[in-house]
Amino acid sequence: MQRRTFLKSAAVVGTTMAVTPSIVLSNTKSNPFGITKKPRKFTVTNSYDLEANDQIARLWIPLPLDSTYQKVLKISYDGNFDEAFISNNNPYNTKLLYAKWNKNSKSRKIVVTFDIIMQERTANLSKATNSTNFPEDVKQFLKGTTHTPVTKTLTQFANNLTKNSKTQLDKAQAIYDWTVENMYRDESVIGCGVGDASRIIEKKLFGGKCTDVSSVFVALLRNAGIPAREIFGIRLGKSMISKSCGKADEKGFAKITGGQHCRTEFYVDGAGWIPADPADVTKVRKQENLTNNDKKIKDLRKYFFGNWEMNWAAFNYARDFVLNPKPAQYPLNMLGYPYAEMDEDVLNYYNPKEFGYKYSSQEII
Q1: CATH number for the domain whose boundaries are 125-315
Q2: Residue ranges of the domains in the chain?
Q3: Which Pfam family, an example, fits this chain (predicted)?
Q4: N or C terminus of the chain: which is more exposed, having fewer CB within 10 Å?
Q5: Could you report the per-residue pLDDT of 243-268, keeping only the tens digit for each?
């Protein structure tokens, strides 16, 4: 069959309402950063231009999930691919766009655009109970993975941290406090870090970036009997907290290539999934040259235990899993970045220029 060289496109239209039912219109703020419940809408563009050669090229692009705090309004893609489709047929129900180019392609381009609306995510911690009768779909996140294992050593470590805790929420707070006090941001780490929690804790290598900090938090929670998971995503625009947490120009445009960021959430009966972001506490502390005794860090520690500022799009919570269609190299550590292979060779997704991708975001102000 002859290679199709014409430009192909597809669109997946989601919610068409200006504001979805779960989005609450409110300018009320209850934090020291001026963050409100006012919805924020972004148009995000991902552009890919892969090397043309005599190898088969395959590309897996993470797409945003739908939840109570963010809704995808539309996804579209255009390119000169030989095959492309959107799928979530994988162990974590992770939404992704798969594209393939045959050998000797003269050009390998695809542009993905999505519109998304979101608002500050908050949890009502007063509803938390001490029940451990978790729903079946939540129990999955008590199990260990390669990078966030459940082991005798880590369980003993977590139990020691929580020995004075009376409730599940108290345990989570103790682990969060230890994480933000002992983990620190190491700018020499490539990308978001590997997130090998066992190695970090056992060897006391407490420096890292967001995936490292988040994975330690998640692993310790699981070892303490609290369901938890990392959520991989990307910063989209200006933060009310700090330029370290996201920035844009005066018109709301942001170049977000390299803006990937890993957050976390944990489950407590009554309160449900509770957002947390210990990694950004360490990032702001490092980049603003602050200490744990500074008021801003005290405020930030409190805020990021139960809240997220939503200038960030969540992609997925997949970890140590096999993509579909199945790649040559597997399992994959995480899918916060695009993943691609030329035959069996993995492209360096930590290097956007070498890989051939650019991300940008426009907030609709």
Answers
A1: 3.10.620.30
A2: 8-120+317-363, 125-315
A3: Transglut_core
A4: N
A5: 999 999 999 999 999 999 999 999 99
